[in-house]
Design a protein that fits this description.
7 helices; mainly alpha
Length: 145
């Protein structure tokens, strides 16, 4: 795969196995190697590692693959809403799954917002929070006073 395979789903499987084995550092190492050797393929695989990159503090690598922060967050919100619509009317356990997706989106947005504020872009940081608050009621998204 590092040398020529093009199956990003295989990377997703590797990420899932490493998560199960509680060795996510191997997934990050794989992604960094793909980024160096095959950046176009790494771009296809980014979705499987985006949360791990943020959690690991790999912000430069994360920003390399998300492009415009505002557009990226809008895509993430749209995907979250699509999942919400698919899960409507399902069992309580599926609603718990949706809560997990909501919380992950909130965590992503709060990290992005903080990074933007740290880069002296408080206006964008506030806008990111407002975009997310429109679809997910969460007290952590309330405007700062």
């Amino acid at each position: 795969m590092k040398e020529g395979g093009q199956n990003s789903d295989l990377v997703g499987d590797i990420v899932a196995i490493n998560r199960y084995l509680e060795d996510e550092s191997r997934s990050l190492a794989l992604f960094k190697e793909l980024d160096q050797r095959r950046p176009e393929f790494a771009k296809q695989c980014f979705t499987y590692l985006k949360h791990q990159l943020l959690e690991a503090g790999e912000f430069d690598l994360y920003f390399k693959y998300i492009g415009n922060v505002k557009k990226y967050l809008a895509r993430e919100i749209a995907q979250n809403e699509e999942i919400r619509n698919q899960l409507k009317g399902w069992s309580p356990s599926m609603r718990q799954t949706m809560q997990h997706f909501d919380e992950r989106l909130v965590e992503t947005m709060l990290t992005l917002s903080k990074l933007m504020a740290d880069k002296s872009d408080a206006a964008l940081a506030s806008e990111l929070k407002a975009m997310t608050a429109k679809v997910i009621p969460n007290p952590r998204l309330a405007p700062e006073k």
